[in-house]
Structures are given as structure tokens and as C-alpha cells.
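$ fold --in a.seq
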Amino acid sequence: MATVGSSSRSGGKEAEGDESLARALWNLELREGELDDVIIGENDLEEMKKQARWLAVARVHTPKPFSSEALFQTLRFVWGLSRDPELREVDDNLFTFKKNCLGDWNKVMNQGPWLFRKLVLVIAEYDGIVQPTKVALDRVAVWAQIHSIPELYRRQGVVDQLAQRIGKVKSVEMSHQLWFEGDYVRVRASIEVAKPLIRFVPLNLAGTERKLLHVKYEKIGYFCDVCGIMGHDMEECGDGMHSEKEIQYGKWMIAKRRSQLPGQGFFRARGSGRFGGRGREGRGEYLGRKRPSNDAFEGDDDLDDTASSPEKKGEPTTMEEDVDSLSGKGSAARLLNFENVVAVPNPEEKGGLEKSGKVAEEVDLVPPPPPGYIPPREKKRSKKGQSTSTSSSVDSGVMATEAASEEDHLAQ
């Protein structure tokens, strides 16, 4: 026979039934069937450890109940992993996650914090051996910003000491892309979720002056404006009734993303539409701001008239020169030869051919008609004449018939 020792759950809620079972285990005697061990060989153990190298355990930092299926769907969507992870609910608000490759593991563990309904997800590595309830889930890695560090003290050693006031430092970025407003350095730090957020870090200037440097957070879960602890708001803190003097935290601690990167504007290709394109010579330009209407055409070489022609020797600049060009004194008259252009005579007009005889001799503007050509007016006249002659012949025939019948009547 063998006796069994008790094991308690750290960080979980022990019910009365569990406490009574723990007390009873001290007096239980195991029987023969209960001592038949399942032996795991060393090779199998190594393979199991290899498969469990990308295991993690997590919980949502909130006392409120929620749907685990809703959590799984949200995480699958926001993570966007290359392979679907294995998600399992272990206990109330306690889950295990298994990734399938190194890329998915690095994304989940290093690109947080991850939020579910604006609540931070506390996640930690898990070896798969100890009980998930015994894994400490009390810290979360966040991105913090330390603003307005004087240029003289903007050194790696000084910044590292300032970052340690926020939490356990994972990395520090001295030079980075300014995705957020302000002049700052980025700090990746692990902070305790049960403690208030750090609002300022002090910098003592040569032992004579203390300068408070503002700390802001990127993509942080919502926190209380009174106590500064994540997981609840000020209406859920205490009785929810607080004066303005008690409000020590707020949205001014959240980093604000820039709407437009410095030195860049909306990209528009030259000679293209509003949303860009290849443009001239396949190159584009950034338009940092919209030009006012009064200087929109100043210095724009693309709008200058640079057209040239062998026959074009000068550009008229006044109205008189424009009139001269149309009357035959300009380059357009030489090109079109206005001096030889005259109106076409109308054959129907009386004396039209005589008046234009000189023109017909000098310039043959109208080609001769083809053989057998009949003008449209002559065709209409001929049609009218045929209809008139037909009607007259019909009338004469009717009159002759009536006269003959009258003679026969008189003879009778």
C-alpha cells in the first residue's frame, strides 16, 4: 500500500469539495490496480518535449465572465498565424495555446500586448509538465514611450536606467520611425498587471534639479483612472463614486498615432490622377500640402507652350496681330493661302457664271460632274412634270368618254 500526498492549486479558487478531498487523500490506501504504472521511455519523452516547445498558457486580466469560443475566434483573427493554433480551455479563464512553427511563436510572444474586448491577455511560456494553474500569470510585456529626454542626456546608459523604472526591460529603441506623436524613445518592458502604471520617470540633472519625463503606452488595455490598475475602469473601482481630485490617471497616458508621417504627404505621380500612377517617366512626387489657388500655376513649366513648327516663326501677342494673321499677313495665312480662296458660284443664280468667269479660269475649285449626272432639283422637276402629264391625260380621256356618250344619247 502507498499513501498519496496532497497538492494545492496556487492562484485558483479552491472549493469546499477540493479541500475535503485534499484532507481525505492523507488517509487513502491505493490498491493493486491503482499502482500499475504507465511508463514513458526516454525517446518518447524527448519527442514529447520537442512537440511542447511552443506551448503557452494564458488568461484574460479581468474578473468578469466571458465566452471562451469568442476569445478563440478573436485570437485567431488578430494573430493571423500561418497555421491554426491548438487552443484549449483548462479552467475558468485559463487556457493553453500550442503553436506549430517558430514564426507563429515569435509573433504571439513578442508582438503583444494582445487585447480581447480591450482587456489585456496575460501570456507566459509553458513547459507542459507542471499544472497550468501553477504558472505565474502576473506580468505582461508592453511598449512604453519616454518623452522629452534632453539631448545631452539621450544616451544608452541613461535611457536604460530610466526604462528600469517602468518594468523589466526587454529592449530599448533609441532611433525608430516616428509612428506616434512626440519626441520619445521606445521601451519594451514587462510590467506587473496588479500594480499601477508608471506615469513619469524622474531624471535628476546634476543633483540640482529633478525633471519628470512623461511615460506613454502603446496599445494598452483599459485601466482605472483612479488607481491606475488594468482590468477595470473607475466606475468599477470601489463604489464607483470619485471626485476629480481622485482621478490621477487618464487618456493622456496613451500614445497617439500620427495621421501623417513627418516629411511625407499623399503620393501622387506627375501627370497622373488623384491616386497616383506611373506618370511622366515612371516617377512620382510627394505632395506635402495643397498649394493655394493664387500660386497654383506659378513656376509650373509643364503648362508652358513649347510647341514649334517649321512654318511657325512668330506668336501674335496682340489683337491686331491676330487680325492680321487671319487676313493674310500672318503665318496662318501663308499656311492656308487665304488669297486664293473664294466662294463657289451658284449655277442657279442669274449671272452667277458670268460674275465668276474669272475665278473659273484662275482656280478650278469644283470638279466637273460625272456623265449622266442630274442635279437633285432637276430630278424633282422631272418627277413633278411626269405626274402632271399623267393627270392631264387621264382628264382628257374622261372628257372624251363623256362626249361620246352624249352624242349617242342625241342620236337615239
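$ fold --in b.seq
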Amino acid sequence: QVKHLRAQLYPANSVHPKAIVARFRENPEQPTKDCFIFAGNLLLGPRFQPYIHDIALTIHYRGKFFKFLVFFKRHKLLPPDQCIQNLQGGHIDGNLLLVSCGKKVLIRNLRNRLEVRAADRAIKRLAEALNPIRTWRQFPSTLSFD
């Protein structure tokens, strides 16, 4: 069953993040555990044999903890992400897709401005932690920031 949710896209060809609608598929028998986000259609880069990386981020922002999933590609032909550079983060190539995680469900809609600001801070910290991204052979599956 294919559903939609509100997510945040950090496009390489723009200086501002965009709120978008992302599609995902969930298993009706285990909707809280088994989800697949169709991130490949939203990210720039080669369509043949794309390898999409994902990292779970946890950040403490203004007294609350937020958890996000970030999806991105790594390829030498991707353009530098101007949106990340505008956030004064590190250097990442291509688009980034950010989806919010819930306490009882795996993924959920981005809800309010506080959560969007926490997402921006998490992306900035991710870019700083992975800089320079081209030297990484493997990426961590989870990262936490204070």
C-alpha cells in the first residue's frame, strides 16, 4: 500500500530547503516496523544502479529530542549542494531527503516550524560530521548530536 508524507528536501540547485510530499510503502501486517521510502525518485544523480545511503539522526534541540532519517546518494558527478552550503554546513554533493521519525511509528509527517528548524540543524551537523564526504568508504548507520 503506497502512502504519502510531508518531508524536507535539501536540493543541490537551490539555496533553500523545500517541503515536499514523499511516497512510501508500508506492510499492512506490520505498519510500525516495515516501511520503504521511495527516495530514489527525489534525489539527483544516475538512475541506473543507484545506491542510496541512509543515516538515522538524533538531535537535542531546544529541550526536545528529534529523530530523522536522511537519504542521499554519493557519486562523483553530482553537483555540490548549495542548500547545505547556505546552512554553513560542510560540503555534500547532490540532494538530501529528510523524513521525521516518531516514537510509535517508524516514519511520520514533519509537523511544525520547531521540527523543521531542528531538521536544518541536524542536516548542518551531519554535513560537518561527514566533511569531506568523498573520503568516507562506509557511513555510520546512526549519529547523535547535542
